[in-house]
Design a protein that fits this description.
There is one protein chain. The chain has six helices and 14 strands. The longest helix is centred in the C-terminal third of the chain and has 12 residues. The protein starts with 25 loop residues before the first strand and ends with a helix.
């Protein structure tokens, strides 16, 4: 799996869900493959009106869109297709609306993945997703805190991520972008790999900003200002 689910005690969330007005705000795509509530709460902490929806029309009417994801690439792309989300994701990005992919949500943006065979992705970014090929001193999945490093001249929301900041990762696969200019941040785990991409208002992270404490909140706040 790209992003391994960890066993944990499940707590009942008594926090009331915000009433969705049906338009505007930040919409988190629900396709049964994401850690939706934790992402929603993190966005609310930085002042966003964040709603979870599985309705393509609601996603199309959002001001900002978030594509989270945990699990296998193959299953995720199938769910997006079955729920009519592929076209609306393309439209959102073509319209230059702020779009944030998280973890598997980053991987899905690429042309293909080699997880459990070769599977086509959304094809928004050129490149592929491959498994870590490491010596035995490195465990796969790559799990825990790791530093990130800037790959491009600082501009815009780049300043929200300090050089050498630590973010939380959980993944066995990583993207290999075909265009070096798409790589925003890199990290190192037995070699450099793409930790985040940025192309205009399209941003995606291999790490989990919602689990990354202050560094993650700063990134989400910057995304909210796009």
């Amino acid at each position: 799996m790209s992003n391994e689910a960890q066993s944990a005690t499940v707590a009942i969330d008594t926090h009331p869900q915000p009433i969705d007005p049906g338009h505007g705000g930040t919409v988190i795509i629900d396709y049964q493959m994401g850690n939706l509530r934790s992402v929603q709460k993190a966005l609310e902490r930085v002042g966003q009106r964040a709603y979870v929806s599985s309705d393509p029309d609601r996603v199309a009417n959002a001001d900002r869109v978030v594509l989270p994801g945990v699990g296998a690439f193959r299953d995720a792309i199938r769910e997006l297709r079955q729920r009519g989300m592929v076209e609306v994701i393309h439209q959102t990005i073509e319209q230059k609306k702020p779009f944030l992919g998280i973890c598997l949500g980053l991987q899905l943006l690429f042309e293909q993945s080699e997880e459990f065979g070769v599977h086509s992705g959304l094809g928004i970014l050129p490149g592929k997703v491959v498994r870590f090929q490491l010596d035995r001193s490195y465990k796969v999945p790559h799990m825990g805190w790791n530093q990130v490093h800037h790959c491009q001249p600082m501009q815009g929301m780049d300043h929200a991520v300090e050089e050498g900041s630590f973010f939380y990762f959980v993944h066995s696969y990583h993207a290999v972008p075909a265009r070096r200019e798409d790589v925003w941040l890199e990290s190192d785990y037995g070699g450099r790999f793409c930790a985040a991409i940025r192309r205009g208002n399209l941003v995606a992270t291999q790490f989990h900003p919602e689990k990354s404490q202050d560094a993650g909140m700063k990134l989400l706040k910057a995304f909210a200002s796009l």
